[in-house]
Design a protein that fits this description.
Blueprint (H helix, E strand, L loop, with lengths): L3 E6 L3 H12 L1 H8 L3 E7 L15 E2 L2 H5 L6 E4 L7 H10 L3 E4 L2 H17 L4 E2 L11 H7 L5 E7 L2 H13 L3 H10 L8 H4 L2 H15 L9 E2 L7 H9 L2 E11 L5 E12 L11 E8 L3 E8 L3 H21 L13 E2 L6 E11 L2 H13 L4 E9 L2 E8 L2 E2 H12 L4 E9 L4
Parallel strand pairs: 1-2, 1-4, 2-3, 4-5, 5-6, 8-10, 10-13
Antiparallel strand pairs: 7-9, 7-11, 9-10, 11-12, 14-16, 14-17, 14-18, 15-16
The structure holds L-homoserine (HSE).
């Protein structure tokens, strides 16, 4: 029985757990693959002090030499970022290695080119760990739901921001303190801007839209808003409206399949909605398909061990393919629908406004909204800081109509502050 050799690029939060579980689960991995699998080398940026559980003789700072060895069957890429990951993966393909990656930014940006290179060299590229940590999502979309037609994917795909918003909602925690905690627990990216500004979730949304609709959505086509503007006052407003604020990713396909849309933004979610119950760094994704109806995928979406679980699942799959002399499913993009702009998206919204203590303020707000085609479903008024705080829930309107209404509201003399957050989960 031949031994399959694995090279790993990166040995941080995820890589060290991959090494640990490869050792701990060695017998099961051998049985499931049908051959032993051994770690042949681990490339790190700086040698540094010994890493617990990582044999020192395997560690090298020469990643390029490692992927060029020629006796490597599978390269696990857990360094993240576009460079040097892209070049190393291309070199690995050229030397006959399949690749397992957790790199959402790279796959979202370069998935097409990487899949083409893998196919040209007759090897696999798998990346279940790139979206939603331990939660199986890409394989179910690509394989289990291959006979169905998915029309919507809606979920929480960033653990760090969910952790922060959950801490703010449940414990009144301060934003920066919650971010520090998420970073120390190994949930946040090397630069947490990627998490809190929504870049990480946008990359995942682009990948999800591709798998769900058999197409390619570029990451710059994903509308993106992060959570940095969410304040304790917004969280309180959400509570008062019986909602929680979550950062959501939404991918939708039009009924005739000619348009798709992908977006990431904070949303008000009614507290009885399944996504409202997603706590800490967990992720949850609802998939709606013609025949299956609504499916929910839920579990730990960030952190070393959960992400390692997804990496090792892919490792087993690509090792089995190697032994069988085959490759698994490749690029999923066979459709070319147009990507519709955010301005066309129709939704309901929660508006919170601070107004001066003027009897005419309320009427002016309602008039401006009406003039822009945004109709009011409910409106509550509470005294706040010498004026009033208005909480407005709207009926369905396009994003373009809402944006125009917000601009007009901001010009009103009696309006001091306007915030708007989409509402999800209601018709
Ligand atoms: N920083 C990411 C998150 C890690 O918080 O979800 C998992 O992709």
């Amino acid at each position: 029985m031949r031994t399959l050799r694995v090279a790993m690029l990166g040995c941080g939060t995820v890589g060290s757990e991959v090494a640990r579980y490869m050792k701990r689960h060695a017998d099961d991995l051998t049985a499931r693959i049908g051959a032993p699998v051994e770690m042949a080398g681990i490339a790190v940026r700086r040698a540094g002090p010994p890493r617990p559980g990582v044999p020192g003789h395997l560690v090298t700072t020469d990643a390029d030499a490692l992927v060029r060895r020629g006796d490597i069957d599978v390269v696990i890429e857990v360094i993240g970022g576009t460079d040097p990951a892209r070049g190393l993966i291309m070199t690995a393909f050229a030397h006959g290695a399949s690749v397992v990656s957790a790199n959402k930014a790279l796959i979202a940006a370069e998935g097409g080119a990487l899949h083409a290179a893998a196919a040209a060299h007759g090897v696999d590229l798998y990346y279940e760990a790139a979206v939603a940590g331990a939660v199986p999502l890409l394989r179910p979309l690509r394989e289990s739901l291959a006979g169905d037609r998915v029309h919507r994917v809606l979920g929480i795909v960033n653990g760090t921001t969910n952790f922060i918003l959950d801490r703010m909602h449940s414990f009144g925690a301060d934003y920066s303190q919650a971010l520090k905690e998420a970073t120390s627990l190994g949930y946040a990216e090397a630069d947490p801007t990627a998490d809190v500004e929504g870049y990480d979730a946008a990359a995942k949304a682009a990948i999800l839209a591709g798998f769900a609709f058999g197409t390619r959505v570029r990451v710059d086509e994903v509308h993106r808003e992060g959570i940095t503007a969410i304040t304790a006052a917004d969280v309180d407003d959400a509570k008062a409206a019986g909602c929680v604020i979550k950062l959501v990713a939404v991918c939708e396909r039009s009924a005739d399949g000619s348009f798709v849309n992908a977006r990431v933004h904070p949303a008000m979610i009614p507290s009885d909605h399944p996504l409202a119950a997603v706590r800490g760094a967990c992720n949850a994704v609802l998939v709606e398909a013609d025949a299956a109806g609504q499916l929910m995928f839920y579990g730990p979406g960030a952190g070393g061990a959960p992400t390692a679980s997804a990496v090792l699942g892919d490792l087993v799959a690509v090792c089995r393919n190697k032994l069988a002399g085959v490759t698994g499913p490749g690029d999923t993009a066979y459709n070319r629908p147009a990507v519709s702009p955010m301005t066309d998206v129709v939704g309901r919204y929660h508006l919170s406004l601070d107004t001066a203590d003027q009897p005419s303020a309320l009427a002016e707000v309602a008039t401006v909204l009406g003039r822009h085609g945004v109709s009011v479903a409910t409106l509550t008024r509470r005294p706040r800081e010498g004026g009033f705080s208005l909480a407005v829930s709207t009926h369905r309107a396009t994003d373009a109509a809402l944006s125009a209404a917000l601009c007009a509201l901001r010009t009103l003399d009696h309006v001091r502050r306007v915030r708007s957050i989409p509402r999800l989960g209601e018709t």
